[in-house]
Amino acid sequence: MNLGETARWVRDRQVHLETSPTSNLQTGAVAALSGDGSSTMADHPFDMLYQLGFNVGVNTDNRLVSGVTLSGELAALAEAFDYGMAELVDFQINALEASFLGYEEREALSAFILEAWQ
């Protein structure tokens, strides 16, 4: 796949892309990409971005409106794209590293996540 100049810039600099897959489906953002007006989690570009080396993370966006949890979002992505625990942890560490937490807090939370998910 040929990436445009902006996409290459984002990927090469590992700019974090926070995604909210269920919300993206519910708002029609993914359907707009598919062109046929319908979409499922398997149509979401999350896996394409991940496979192309983009720094992706998972969020719930509007948890109460969308009726989702973070664990539910991760489970939906795992089912749609056959992700294992290693990938799911990577997505969470990506998000953590892009957060506004201080260095020590990020390190402590990262260690906690990695230990809990082992």
How would you portray this structure in words?
By secondary structure, the protein is mainly alpha-helical. It has a domain at 5-83. Helices cover 59% and strands 7% of the residues. The chain is built from 8 helices and 2 strands; from the N terminus they run αβαααβαααα. Strands 1-2 form a two-stranded parallel sheet. It starts with a helix and ends with a helix. The mean pLDDT is 91.
Care to give the gist of this entry?
The chain is mostly helical. The chain has helices at 5-12, 21-26, 29-34, 46-51, 63-66, 70-81, 85-97, 103-117; strands at residues 16-19, 55-58.
What order do the helices and strands come in, and which of them pair?
Blueprint: H1 5-12, E1 16-19, H2 21-26, H3 29-34, H4 46-51, E2 55-58, H5 63-66, H6 70-81, H7 85-97, H8 103-117
Helix pairs in contact: 7-8
